[in-house]
């Protein structure tokens, strides 16, 4: 590949003199116009801890690009903070922001003639947004994670944002004192960086390594560590090497690489959001990778990492025992990981992993033949309640089957209030609908509700079914991503209070136990809700696909 495949078109020759004027105005010299032009794209915002420091990291990335002979320019993209908008109307913008991030990167990279680019992410949607843009643009490009926050310590035990969310339910229930509540608030996140457990952000960072779009070992160093700077700096030389060798994103994001990522998602019992994002990335890459592929993987991969919310350990604990490569190596040794896909480091993942030792890492990561849990933490369900699929998150008890009576809510807030008021009792299936990609719109996460269920001590006796999403911090018997969603007339729109619902993760089934004649009558009475009147929510609701297809607008 030529060293300047695109920037030469934008900036060389007499006809492009005016374009050079603009870059000379910001300090470019003759020599800079002979170098590959590299975009450094931090998803940056001070409105939350997750991406608070990515602008700083972008300076290090620029240093790395310069040292490797490139000319870097920073072009930031946006961030929506999922923790802060959780349980509010703002959460509707979370998944939408993933599309905006991919779109803004496309617009900036394609407008200015960049030859290669580096994305730096943090909070949940910034990562898939950046990786989707990598797949879409198919250029030499690398994703680097901004890192996780350090965990807090309270009374000798680890506290994270998960405890903060669940403390609300426990306080309301009267089993947590106000003093302890305030201490949790003060201690839950002592530094900037992302949420500390294996929630969506840390899940996606590990999957980025498994997929090969990030250097091995780069997911787990904390946001505050010096290693962060070293990885973004390394990205500078790696991306220019990719440019030299003609390695582009789609030669990395293949079916096999996506399958490796799905395998890893199951092995770590990662966030269910990972499924949505892998489907979306596959769509951008033009790879046929579906819920069926994920279903097949989920049936043969055990959980080998004991991380929050399913286990006791944080991302920092995983880092101390060797990081994501330890997990990947154990999967490779068990024949569950394909060794052949190449990564942004220019070598196959199998070859790179041959340099790592995964022995003797203790309880954080176990081997495949002595797993933390014998089954994956996620199951794909289908049935008359979700003909196009749904995603089940298996709770801490490992319970795979549940049968109960529906309690139906058309918003997260009404469900939360019902739990708070004691209206939801053991044996209920809480159904929250019209919160799907089109319906909400934006498919918000239901962490407030799931945390309230767990906080009220009903984590193993109440199930939840929704066409919305879960947070990675969610635990309990949870079924989300129900497709088709209520807003397009999916069967979830027909559920009524008291209906019996059967969930069977072992068989991959979810059923509404109401006869077809009755469902037909209800269908005849149903009408679609109006779309939002204007703005981004309206545009998104008109374009977005169903959760079973990744909920993308591409
Ligand atoms: Fe950003 Fe949790 S709120 S990673």
Number of helices: 21
Write down the overall mean pLDDT: 94
Find the count of extended strands (DSSP E, 2+ residues). 14
Q: Which strand-content bin applies to the residues?
A: 5-15%
Instruction: Kindly provide the radius of gyration, computed on alpha-carbon positions and rounded to a whole number of angstroms.
Output: 23 Å
Distance between the termini: 28 Å
Structural class: alpha/beta
Structure ligands: FE2/S2 (inorganic) cluster
What is the molecular shape?
A: globular
Q: How would you sum up this structure, described in words?
A:
This protein is α/β, with parallel strands linked by helices and 554 residues long. The chain is built from 21 helices and 14 strands. The protein has helices at 7-11, 17-24, 54-67, 82-85, 92-112, 126-137, 161-172, 178-187, 200-211, 226-245, 249-252, 255-267, 273-285, 291-298, 315-320, 324-333, 349-353, 412-420, 447-455, 516-525, 535-543; strands at residues 37-42, 71-74, 116-121, 141-145, 152-154, 157-159, 378-383, 386-393, 401-409, 428-432, 463-466, 477-483, 500-504, 509-512. The protein has an eight-stranded mixed beta sheet. Helix 7 (161-172) packs antiparallel against helix 8, helix 12 (255-267) packs antiparallel against helix 13 (273-285) and helix 18 runs parallel beside helix 19. The protein is globular and about 75 Å long. The protein starts with 6 loop residues before the first helix and ends in an 11-residue tail after the last helix. Bound molecules: FE2/S2 (inorganic) cluster. FE2/S2 (inorganic) cluster (FES) binds at residues 50, 81-83, 123-124, 194-195, 199, 201.
């Amino acid at each position: 590949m030529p060293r300047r495949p695109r920037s030469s078109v934008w900036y060389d020759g007499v006809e492009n003199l005016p374009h050079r004027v603009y870059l000379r105005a910001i300090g470019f010299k003759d020599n800079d116009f002979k170098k590959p032009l590299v975009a450094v794209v931090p998803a940056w915002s001070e409105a939350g801890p997750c991406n608070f420091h990515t602008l700083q990291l972008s300076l290090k990335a620029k240093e790395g690009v310069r040292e490797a002979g490139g000319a870097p320019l920073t072009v930031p993209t946006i961030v929506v903070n999922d923790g802060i908008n959780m349980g509010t109307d703002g959460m509707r913008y979370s998944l939408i922001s993933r599309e905006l991030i991919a779109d803004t990167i496309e617009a900036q990279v394609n407008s200015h003639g960049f030859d290669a680019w580096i994305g730096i992410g943090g909070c949940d949607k910034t990562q898939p947004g950046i990786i989707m843009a990598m797949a879409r643009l198919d250029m030499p490009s690398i994703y680097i994670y901004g890192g996780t926050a350090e965990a807090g310590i309270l009374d000798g035990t680890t506290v994270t944002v998960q405890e903060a969310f669940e403390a609300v339910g426990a306080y309301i229930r009267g089993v947590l004192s106000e003093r302890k509540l305030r201490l949790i608030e003060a201690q839950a996140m002592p530094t900037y960086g992302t949420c500390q457990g294996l929630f969506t952000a840390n899940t996606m960072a590990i999957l980025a390594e498994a997929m090969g779009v990030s250097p091995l070992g780069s997911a787990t160093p904390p946001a505050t560590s010096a290693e962060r700077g070293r990885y973004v700096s390394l990205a500078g030389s790696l991306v220019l090497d990719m440019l030299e060798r003609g390695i582009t994103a789609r030669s990395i994001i293949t079916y096999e690489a996506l399958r490796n990522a799905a395998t890893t998602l199951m092995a770590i019992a990662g966030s269910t959001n990972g499924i949505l994002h892998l489907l979306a990335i596959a769509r951008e890459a033009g790879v046929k990778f579906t819920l069926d592929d994920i279903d097949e993987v989920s049936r043969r991969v055990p959980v080998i990492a004991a991380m929050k919310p399913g286990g006791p350990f944080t991302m920092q604990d995983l880092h101390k025992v060797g990081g994501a490569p330890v997990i990947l190596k154990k999967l490779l040794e068990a024949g569950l990981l394909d060794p052949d896909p190449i990564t942004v480091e220019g070598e196959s993942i199998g070859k790179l992993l041959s340099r790592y030792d995964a022995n003797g890492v203790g309880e954080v990561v176990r081997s495949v033949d002595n797993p933390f849990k014998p089954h994956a933490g996620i199951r794909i369900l289908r049935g008359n309640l979700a003909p196009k699929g749904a995603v089940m998150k298996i709770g801490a008890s490992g319970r795979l089957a549940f049968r109960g009576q529906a309690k139906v809510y058309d918003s997260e807030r009404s469900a939360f209030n019902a739990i708070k008021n004691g209206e939801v009792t053991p044996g209920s299936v809480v159904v929250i609908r019209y919160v799907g990609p089109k319906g909400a719109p934006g498919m918000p996460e239901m962490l407030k509700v799931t945390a309230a269920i767990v906080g009220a001590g009903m984590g193993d006796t109440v199930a939840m079914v929704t066409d919305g999403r879960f947070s990675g911090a969610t635990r309990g018997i949870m079924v989300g991503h129900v497709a088709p969603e209520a807003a397009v007339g999916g069967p979830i729109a027909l559920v009524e209070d008291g209906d019996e619902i059967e969930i069977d993760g072992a068989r991959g089934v979810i059923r509404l136990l109401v006869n077809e004649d009755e469902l037909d009558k209800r269908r005849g009475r149903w009408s679609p809700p109006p779309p939002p009147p204007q703005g981004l929510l309206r545009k998104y609701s008109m374009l977005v696909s169903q959760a079973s297809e990744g909920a993308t607008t591409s």
